[in-house]
Write a structure and sequence with these properties.
The protein is an alpha/beta fold. The strands form 2 sheets. Strands 2-1-3-6-5-7 form a 6-stranded mixed β-sheet, sandwiched between helices. A 3-stranded mixed β-sheet has the order 4-9-8. It has a single domain, classed as Spore Coat Polysaccharide Biosynthesis Protein SpsA, Chain A (Alpha-Beta Complex), CATH 3.90.550. A hairpin with a 5-residue loop joins strand 5 and strand 6. Helices cover 41% and strands 22% of the residues. 41% of the residues are buried. It is globular. Helix 3 runs antiparallel to helix 4, helix 4 crosses helix 5 and helix 6 crosses helix 7. The protein contains 9 helices and 9 strands.
């Protein structure tokens, strides 16, 4: 058994063909570093308490945000020294530069580019949970998981999709300054569009606001279809990232 476990999860079959390239990139990175790799389908949700599973069955993103934390806790309980989560739409396109922090835990970096109410491009710098890393002995994972579960139990009705994910993590980060894996980014739809068009305003702004060059990024499968970015465009984006980077 390796000292490190990398975990990914998604329902099976995959809803978009291009997701397989993302999964393959993470699995290949894990193999290259001699990490154990584990893919879990909807059995991921079995790790939730029955009442929370039922309460959030219509909001799979919310359920997944908590279930991944319980899955990571399980990995540490199995004896791994380090556990890593990557979303199924997380692409490691520069694997040699995707090097783990020497920290007890780390979150991903979100430099989100979108238009404001006046139509001007703006960046919103936060953290995200599409990439998570926790080493044995860290105190943050248990606190975060228990806080997320408590908030879900207290809340009545539907909540924002990012309620216990990026929103809660960013609020905590703003107070305690969590370690951040700056090379583990997230690409907004405007940045994705720039990668397959002659425009580069959003891409340039994201690059200017990023502290390092990205080596991996979440590609936002929950937004691509809604934003009209089809499979062929996503395949072209992945090809561009793998061959040219950002």
């Amino acid at each position: 058994m390796s000292a490190t476990l990398v975990i990914q999860s998604h329902r099976d079959p995959l809803p978009f063909d291009w997701l397989q390239a993302c999964l393959d990139s993470v699995a290949a990175w894990a193999r290259a570093n001699e990490y154990d790799y584990r893919f879990i389908d909807d059995r991921l949700f079995d790790l939730l308490a029955p009442d929370l599973r039922e309460k959030n069955c219509q909001q799979r993103v919310i359920a997944s945000d908590l279930a991944r934390l319980r899955c990571l806790q399980q990995g540490l309980a199995e004896g791994y020294d380090c556990v890593i989560w990557c979303d199924a739409d997380f692409l490691i396109f520069k694997p040699r530069d995707f090097i783990l922090l020497e920290a007890n835990f780390a979150l991903g970096r979100e430099v989100w580019v979108q238009h404001d109410v006046r139509g001007k491009l703006r960046t919103y710098i936060k953290v995200h949970n599409a990439f998570l890393m926790f080493r044995r002995g860290n105190h943050f994972l248990d606190f975060y998981a228990d806080s997320a579960e408590r908030l879900l139990r207290l809340n009545q009705g539907r909540v924002a999709p990012q309620f216990i994910g990026p929103k809660l993590l960013t609020a905590l980060h703003n107070i305690v300054q969590c370690p951040v894996m700056e090379s583990a980014g997230m690409l907004s739809p405007l940045v994705l569009r720039d990668l397959v068009s002659c425009q580069n305003d959003a891409l340039r702004l994201m690059q200017q606001q990023s502290s390092v060059k990205l080596a991996g990024a979440n590609l936002g499968s929950s937004l691509t279809l809604r934003e009209g970015i089809g499979d062929e465009e996503m395949e072209a984006i992945i090809e561009h990232l793998v061959t040219k980077g950002l």
